[in-house]
Fold:
Amino acid sequence: MTQSSDIRGEHLRTALALAASGLPVLPLRKGKVPFANCLACLYTSCGGRPHMKTPGPCACPGPCHGWAAATADPETLTSTEWAGAWRGAAAVAYHPGGAGLTVVDLDNADAIAWAREHLPATQTVPTTRGEHWLYLGAMTSANGVRPGVDIKSTMSYARWLGPGTGTPTVLPDAVRALATSKPAPAGPALSPVTVPAPAGGGECRHRTPAFLERGIAMAEQRITEATSGVHSTVYRAFLAVLSTHGRCGCLTEDHIARLFTAAQAKGETARHCTDAWTNARNRLGL
Structure:
């Protein structure tokens, strides 16, 4: 057995142990992102789109995608549908909200210092750059509630990095207030975007509306799940959308606003969004 296959086997063993304790788990591929398991509802069902408020009914024939794929069922985790994912797994993640938990993700030393001053002590798990603070109770997930602070609970996933130390305490009002008091990201200052229309009119003849919707949702998902290199991720997502739909006249300001909003939720400024969009258009000659 090779070292890589042994590591992947260890990921599955870890997942099964966590599932036995009631924690819904899923494999992550390289880059700490989920596998796209179900193409039938990819990014458009089961709460997969970041702007959806509640998960929709899942009719997937096999494991779903993203956080919605998390399960504590050992038969599902060891099924043939999951076999390929575990072979390519780089880490294990879990759905905190599905286990009645909330993770306060502290991304740097300043965020940790703030938490120690303002939040009650609880179970703490070291991360690459900071700490995860785990509380008992679920709530709405939110990114960027403070500099270096994200909240991962419902409709989100967190990487499993071990049990950490301490005992989880009840989710305090101070954490809930972070999500409700988070200032709404400034709307992107969009000027009308004009793209060349195809011959015969401005309607996209070679793609269906569902194809466009899936493309926008996939770009939103890519931006939302970025854990590093957000600037370059935003640019690449914009470039991917424009390369497919920038010349057919089907993009609207609503579509662009969705992409800008997803980027701003990750901490990007409206100016950077505009610059990234302009650079992507210039690269494609639009």
Summary: Confidence is low (pLDDT under 50) at residues 47-57, 184-202. The beta strands are 25-29, 33-34, 91-94, 101-106, 123-126, 131-136, 142-146, 149-152, 158-159, 169-170. The longest strand covers residues 101-106. The longest helix spans residues 3-20.
